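Following up on my earlier thread - several people asked me to post the actual chain instead of describing it. Fair enough. Here it is, all 265 residues.
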Amino acid sequence: MIKSSVPKVSIIIPTFNSEKTIKTTLFAINSQSYENIENIIIDGFSTDNTIKIVEENLDNYKVFQSEPKGIYDAINQGIKQAKGEYIFILNSDDFISFNAIKHLINSMTKNKLSVMWLPTYSNRGYSFKLNLNMIWFGVDQSFFAHSASLMVKREIHKKYGLYNTKIKNFEADHFFFYTLFSKGEKLSVAKKSRSAYGVFTLGGISESMSYISKMINEYNYRKKNKFSNIYDFTYCFISFPIRLIWGFLKFKLFLNMKRLFFKKN
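Reply from S.P.:
Thanks for posting it. Predicted structure:
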C-alpha cells in the first residue's frame, strides 16, 4: 500500500435515524479535494435507512454502532477509533464545501497550529472570527460552530481528554472550547475562502435549552474558579446577573404579549 504524503484526517459522523439529512453530508465528504481521509460513522442503532444510505453513498468508511447515549458520547467513541493525525466532526445534517478539509490542513500546517475553526454559515450568519475578548460575557459569545468547523490535532485530546459528558446540562463543546482557552492554546480561524466553509444546522442540546437555562448551567460550571480566574470572576459577578435579569425580562415580556393576544381574541 502506498503511503500518503499528507497527514490523515479522521472525519467523525455521529448518526441516529438520519435518513432525511445524511445524503447531503455524505455528498460533501465524497466531494473533498483532500486525499487522505478516513470516515468514521458512529451510529446509535438507527431504525431507519441511515446505514443503507451510508453504504450506497459513501466510498470509504467504517461503521461502529453503540447505544445512543448522546451526541458527545458518540463523538468520543469516534475519537477513540480514529487513526488520523487530525480530528474533524461533521454532524449528519451539516455540510462542508469541497475544499474545506484541504484549506484547514494547509492553514494549520502553515501556522503550526493544533486547533483551528473553519469559517461557517449558521443561524448567526457567516462567522469567520473568534471573539475571545468576550469570554467574560459567556462562552457562547466567543465561539461559533463545533460541527462543520472545528479541527484539532489528535494530540489535543490526548492532552485535555475527550468531551466531558458528565457535566449536567452544559454543552460539552462549550466546555471543551473554554478548556482550550483557559489552558492557553492558540486558537484561530482559517482565512476566508469561497471554496472552504462549513454549514452548521441548528439542533442538539444547545438549541433545546432555554436562554436562562444556558446561563445557569454555565454559571454552575464557572463558579468554581470565580476567585482564581478574572474571566470567571467577571462572568459570575457581573455578566451572569445582567444576562439572567435580561432573560427574565424577555420571558415576562413574552408572557404579557401572549396574554394580550389571547385577551383580544
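The longest helix spans residues 230-264. That should answer part of your original question.
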